[in-house]
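Data availability (excerpt). The following record was deposited with the supplementary files.
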Amino acid sequence: QAHSLRNFLRRVWGLLVGPHRSITSPEDRHGAHLLAVLMVVNLLLVTLMLFLTNFIWFHVEGKTIWHDQDTAVFAACGAATIIPFAFLRAGYYRASIWFFLTITAMMSLVGPFMPDPNAEIGYLALIVVPMLIASFVLPVRWAALVSVSVAVIAIIRLVNSGLPFRKVWTGYGIMTAVV
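Predicted structure:
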């Protein structure tokens, strides 16, 4: 029984993260596999954490988080992962990379419009995603370009935030550690 369940889970995992048959070069196949693993794990962990947060919040505060702006952020992050994942599964490896990097970098630009200082940490933590993905699947010069662009966006945000540095330092610390 456990053996058949393990085989079933391996098949499902292989279908989710295996490179599309139209991706032929070994380098692109490896990159497509890695990107798929990152996207699936990211989506699963974010979903798990959202439900766990809701469970704890409900038992501590007596209300759910589903009415909060975090739900909209989760939905946007989910779409930013699911859409490029669909491109990747259809065999459009390069389009998937660029779409995912563009969407995650653009989402980080929403940070300046969030009135909640706590959202700042989340958005700055989110902008490390394009840097990490770029470093895994792109040539070094493109990964460096993505990292420098994201760092410049973050610095501009810090200078223009109007918030005291002590309110936003955690997000910048996360970003700096990744860079």
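Summary of structural features: Helices lie at 2-17, 26-61, 69-89, 93-108, 117-126, 128-137, 140-160, 165-178.
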